[in-house]
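Entry for the shared binder. Reason: the reviewer on the internal report wants the predicted structure included alongside the sequence.
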Amino acid sequence: MPAPIDCVFLDVGNTVISMDYALLCELLAASGVATTSTALARAEAAARPPLSRFLASGGSTEAGGARTFYLRTILAGLPGQDGDVDAAVAAMEAELRTKVTTERLWSRVLPGVPEALERLRAEGLVLVAVSNSDGTVEQGLRDTGLRPYFDAVVDSAVVGFEKPDPRIFRHALELVGARPDRTVHVGDLYAADVVGARAAGLHALLLDPFGDWTDVDCDVVTDVGAIAAWIRGAARDGRPSRVAAPGRSR
């Protein structure tokens, strides 16, 4: 029988923390783009599959080209968007580059995340943040009050490897003494999170809040709050890599 899950790796951006959409609305308004935080959040989630395909072709999550592609895809997906998307993206990138720190941009704790992390810890699971970032993840988690939930934090800019490179996952395993067959990694991008986790021998879960991923070969959950139920189902059925996520079948 497969070993039970006793360690959970979590991506950070769009997994436990999102961008501050109210801030982005302000930046867009200055470029003549009127939208709402709700519309931005929905467009962002829909942009993940295209971004994943972009990354699968050799892009880096931390390179400027990926962010430009990501922002352009989000804006193009906004309802009623008929303005100059490229101009709006250029203006927003200039503001983000010169006036907004990473910690400020990525500062919104996703609904239910603290409670979900508390439940996972209460069940005795080791939690590790594993993120592609620019060296700011540790501080960002501290600023948002989430750092105490994690046994360790792994930032790609600090360790020198970024997902999907399996070395970042192996480094995280070594930090907490975890076994890959007893660890599941949860993230929002198939090309980075699922591909990388599997390359390192981990189980993988993909976050899909609105059902935008229609052709993936992994289990999906709508949010971090569903992880505990997935783990219990894996333990019950004894097949963690093939258990369907709550409310979804494969």
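Summary line for the report: Confidence is low (pLDDT under 50) at residues 241-250.
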